[in-house]
Amino acid sequence: MTVLAGLLALIGALLMVIAGIGLLRMPDFYTRMQAAAKAGTLGILLIVAATGLLLGNLSALLHALLVSLFFLLTTPLAAHLLGRAAYLSGIRPLVHEDDLAGQYHPKTHELRSVPHSAPPDRAEALPE
Length: 128
Hints:
Layout: H1 2-25, H2 29-55, H3 58-88
Helix pairs in contact: 1-2, 2-3
């Protein structure tokens, strides 16, 4: 059990290092956020699992399960909200084609979808 816990902790720590490298190396905010959210979440889940296994009692395993559930529920939500706030504040992604450009109402920030196959005269125009 100790070897398995050590292996999980080592892999989790490596994933956390990869998340840190992703924060330094990725070109824009959105890819940095994705690297931190995905690799960081998996890394912390493995470290929490290793801690639960190493402590070995039912209480520690239950706490590890609750902490893992908390991270699995909050990290994607926080990443989504940060990405949306960044986009609405004017930080544009480094992509060839921005599918969201022109789809947000400038005052209410409501997202309107326009079918890509609709003829130009039938598509709803957003107010300026």
